[in-house]
Amino acid sequence: MSCNCENVNYTKQIKIKKLSTNAKIPTRGSAAAAGYDLYADTEENLIILPHETVIIGTGLAFELPERTFGAIYARSGLASKKGLRPANCVGIVDSDYRGEVKVALHNDSEEAQEISAGERIAQLILQSY
Question: Is residue 38 within 8 Å of residue 123, measured between CB atoms?
């Protein structure tokens, strides 16, 4: 079975469920942005110590279209300014996964870094396969 996925706009087919009242729906920085920003669903600010990994919930669950996956990438600002990146470099959200999407952020810097409640922590790009 083949799929001409280049001509399909999958982003209109994503179903999103908020799992907490503080959860923020992903946003795009511009109409041309490839990724949707994911936000930290925390009530308090978090400190990530040097060379530590902290798992941060988004408070969201997704229902992605078949034959797609969500790729979780670093936000360039967090990576370049704070030394924070997803611990697994690129996270994968399978189309059949229905649990909360979480981001494991790793601090590559030599200083403790703070993540504010509701801060943008990663970006999700929907990809077909």
Answer: yes
Helix or strand (DSSP H, E) at 91: strand 91-94
What whole-number distance in Å separates Cα of residue 99 and Cα of residue 113?
27
Helix (H/G/I), strand (E/B), else coil: 101:
coil
Task: Please give the single-letter amino acid code of residue 98.
Answer: R
Q: What is the pLDDT of residues 29-65, one digit of tens each?
A: 898 999 999 999 999 999 999 999 999 999 999 999 9
- Assigned token pair, 57: 């919930």
Q: Considering just the CA atoms, what is the radius of gyration of the chain in Å?
A: 15
Q: How many CB atoms lie within 10 A of CB 86?
A: 22
Question: Looking at the chain, how many residues does it have?
Answer: 129
Beta bridge partners of 15: 63
Q: Which residues of 104-122 are buried (b: 16+ CB within 10 A; e: fewer)?
A: ebbbeeeeebebeeebbbb
Its sign, for the CA torsion 11, 13, 14, 17, is positive
Phi, psi of 7, rounded to the nearest 5 degrees: -100, 10
